[in-house]
Amino acid sequence: MKLSLWLAVLAVAAAAFPHGAAAQNFTLPSLPYETDAFEPSIDNMTMTFHWTRHTNAFVTNLNSQVLVKCPELNGKSLLELVLAVGAKCNSWNERRGWGKRAARDGCLTIPTECETLVRNNAGGFWNHGLFFLHNLAPAGTQKYSDDASEELQTAIWEAFSDYDTLKANFSAAAAGVFGSGWAWLVTDDDGKLSIVTTPNQDNPLFANAPAKGWPILGLDVWEHAYYLKYYNVRASYIAAFFDVINWKGVSAVYAAAKDGSYGSIDVLKPAANFED
Amino acid sequence: MLRAQASRLARPALLFARDMASATQLNLPDLPYDYGALEPVIIGEIMELHHKKHHQAYVNGANTALEQYQEAQHKGDVSKMIALQPALKFNGGGHLNHSMFWQMLCPPKEYEPPAGALEQAIEAEFGALEALQKQFNAKAAGVQGSGWCWLAFNSEVKNLVIATTANQDPLQPTTGLIPVLGVDVWEHAYYLQYKNVRPDYLKKIWEVVNWKECGRRYQEAIGK
C-alpha cells in the first residue's frame, strides 16, 4: 500500500483515539472443547448460547462502552479491572501497595461514569472466562479422585472433611442464591478454602466484595445457565455440574493462588490441561 | 367425669389449633386465561412453567417462611424473626408480584389501548404511549440480573413514574410506589422463547398488556 495511504489510515486511527493509542479491545477466546461434549450435564444449545451470546455481550460492552467512555482504562488487563471494582484509591493505598500479591500492586481508580459498566461487564467476562476455560471439562473426562491435585484434595479435606460435604455445602449455597448470581469456592492467601456467593456478575475479587477470596471454582446460577434443559429445577443443574468439573484446571488456579501468583492465571486463556 | 377431662384437654388443643389456623396461608391464584392464551407473544410452555412451577415455589416458600416466622414470634425469638425477613421478602414478594402480573396481562385479541384517567396521565407524563413504551423498555432492558420494571403512581408527587426493582422485591412495600403495570424481566419469563434477546420480549409484551386492569389500579391509586 502507498505510504500516503498508510499515513492517512494512521491519522484516522489517531483521530479516533484521542490518547494516541488504538483501543486494545478484548476478544472472545475460542472454547478448547466441543459444545456438545457436556451432555447430559449441560446441553449443546446452552453451552453455545452462553458463550457466543451472553459472554460475547460482555466483550462487546467492554469494547464499545467501557473503553470508549473511559479510554484511560485501555491496556488494563481484565483482572486489573475486576480487582479495581469498588476500590477507594488514595495515596496511602498507593504507598502501601498490596504487598506480596503481584496481582494487587498499585491501585486503579475506575472513573465514576464507568463504575457500573466495569462491574457488570469486566465482572461478567472474568467470571465466564474462569467458568468456561478453567472450571469445565467435557463429560466423562475427569474425576475428582484422579484429577484434583493432592494439594487441593488436602485443602478440601481440611475445610470440608470430604468431597461429599464440599458438594453438599456448595450445592446448598448455589441453590440459595436469590435471583441471578454465582457460587464460588475461594481460597485465602494461605490456601484455606471457603464457599461464598455473589449477586449478578459480582465476584470475590472486587475491592469492595463483602466476602473476599481468590476464586478457584465458580458456578453460574443465572437462569440462562440452565433454563433450556432444567427449566426451574436449579438443583438438578447444580448436581449435574459436579460431573463436568475441570479438576485439573481448578487445581492449577488453586496452586497459583496459594503461592502468591494468582495474577499469573489468565482466565481468558484455556487451562493448561487442554494443551495435551 | 370423662367429659370434663376431655374438655380440659380439648381447650388447649383448640387454642393451639386456633393459633395455627390463623397463620397466613397463601395460595396459588388461578390464571384468568388458559396457558396458551397469550400466544404468540408468550408461549404456553412459559406460562405453564411460570405459573405452576415458579409462582408455586414462591407460594410454598412464603408459607414456610411465614410458619417459621410465627413460631419464632411465639417464642419471642427476635433474632430468628429478622433472619427470616429475606426469605419473606423474596418469596412473599414473588407471590405478590406474580399475582398482579397474571391480572395485568390479557390475550392479544382482547387488547385495548389505555383509556380514561390513565390514558390522560400517560399523555401528560410521557406525551404518548409509544414514548412510555420506549422509556419503559430501556429501563427494563437495563435491569441487571433478575428483577421487574414497573409503571407506577407516585402518590407524593402525584404522577406516573417508571421504576425497577431487583429480584422479587415488591414495589409498594419497598418503595411506596403504587404498581399500575409490572413486567417480569427474570430470564424465566422469556428465555425459552426469546433466548437472551430480552429487548424482543419487551417489544412484544405490549400486545398483551391488560390496560383495563392497569386503569383500574390507577383509579384506585389516585383515589387514595
Automatic annotation (TrEMBL), chain A:
Enzyme Commission code = 1.15.1.1
Which intervals hold domain Manganese/iron superoxide dismutase C-terminal? Answer: 149-251
List the PROSITE patterns hit by this protein, alphabetically: SOD_MN
Gene Ontology terms, cellular component aspect?
Answer: cytoplasm
Keyword Transmembrane listed: no
Q: Name the domain of life.
A: Eukaryota
Secretion signal span: 1-23
Name the Pfam families for this protein: Sod_Fe_C, Sod_Fe_N
Q: Which organism is it from?
A: Chlorella sorokiniana
Q: Which residues form the Manganese/iron superoxide dismutase N-terminal domain?
A: 26-132
Query: Family per UniProt?
Result: Belongs to the iron/manganese superoxide dismutase family.
EC category name: oxidoreductase
- GO MF assignments: metal ion binding; superoxide dismutase activity
At the highest ranks, the source species' classification is: Eukaryota, Viridiplantae, Chlorophyta, core chlorophytes, Trebouxiophyceae
Protein name per Swiss-Prot or TrEMBL: superoxide dismutase
* Keywords from the named record: Metal-binding, Oxidoreductase, Signal
Automatic annotation (TrEMBL), chain B:
- Reactions catalysed according to its record: 2 superoxide + 2 H(+) = H2O2 + O2
InterPro entries the record matches: Fe/Mn_Superoxide_Dismutase, Mn/Fe_SOD, Mn/Fe_SOD_BS, Mn/Fe_SOD_C, Mn/Fe_SOD_N, Mn/Fe_SOD_N_sf, SOD_C_sf
Q: Which PROSITE patterns match?
A: SOD_MN
Sequence intervals crossing the membrane? none
Say if the entry is tagged with keyword NAD. Answer: no
Q: Which cofactor does it need?
A: Mn(2+)
Compartments (UniProt record): Mitochondrion matrix
**What's its EC?**
1.15.1.1
Q: Which residues form the Manganese/iron superoxide dismutase C-terminal domain?
A: 114-215
The protein's UniProt keywords, in alphabetical order, are:
Manganese, Metal-binding, Oxidoreductase
Residue ranges of every copy of the Manganese/iron superoxide dismutase N-terminal domain listed in the record? 27-105
Binding residues for Mn(2+)? 50, 98, 184, 188
Give the family per the record. Belongs to the iron/manganese superoxide dismutase family.
What job does this protein perform? Destroys radicals which are normally produced within the cells and which are toxic to biological systems. Destroys superoxide anion radicals which are normally produced within the cells and which are toxic to biological systems.
PANTHER family from the entry?
Answer: SUPEROXIDE DISMUTASE 2 (PTHR11404), SUPEROXIDE DISMUTASE [MN], MITOCHONDRIAL (PTHR11404:SF6)
- Provide the protein name: Superoxide dismutase
